[in-house]
Amino acid sequence: MELRTHAHILKNARWFLLISTVLVGLAAFIFAFLRPMSYKAVVSFDVHLVNRPATVDYQYGTYYDLKAAELYTQHLMSLMITPAIVEEVYRTAGVGYTIDSIERFTHRFQTKQYSAQNFVVIFHDINRENAEKLSKGISAVVEKRAVEGVNINDQAAFSVNAEPAVIAEANDNVWIVTLVGVIAGFLLGVILVYLREYFRN
After folding, report:
1. pLDDT tens sequence across 150-189
2. Is the domain covering 39-169 a CATH 3.30.70 domain?
3. d(CA 177, CA 183)
4. Helix spans in the chain (H)
């Protein structure tokens, strides 16, 4: 199909393309404008080795300290995808919950490791008060599990400290969502136009 033919097809369907672009863009604007306010919460944790095991050979002590902290940090992060731990967070926070599916429930809290000794727990909530309660629940549960974790001579091997949670509004920019909707509406119109031509031929 020649370029001139493409231009002719799109020109004949210009009103359809305009309508599909405007409708999808308007739907995106309404969705973004009426979407309830949501909040993003970030809880940061620092992990430190406080009780080094006795050994006669510690030539690479600093490296092994960091490696141990890194592995333990990953262990603590894995707690946030454990159903029982997620339930414990809700109970500790005093926030009600329902489990529609285990997969969605265990992905309620996202984790990210920034270094061997630092990681964060991130989640969204439409209620700021609930976000604050859940942040405190996460801190309490992780610190409690850390105390009950790896022990050397009946002493905790690691110290885990939670920083105060940072909570901020997390709604997407209305105009960016609208622009994406306009582009999607135009592309959808082009696809439908060519499908119509395909079945017509």
Report:
1. 655 666 677 888 999 999 887 666 778 788 888 888 888 8
2. yes
3. 10
4. 3-12, 14-34, 61-79, 83-93, 102-106, 128-147, 174-200
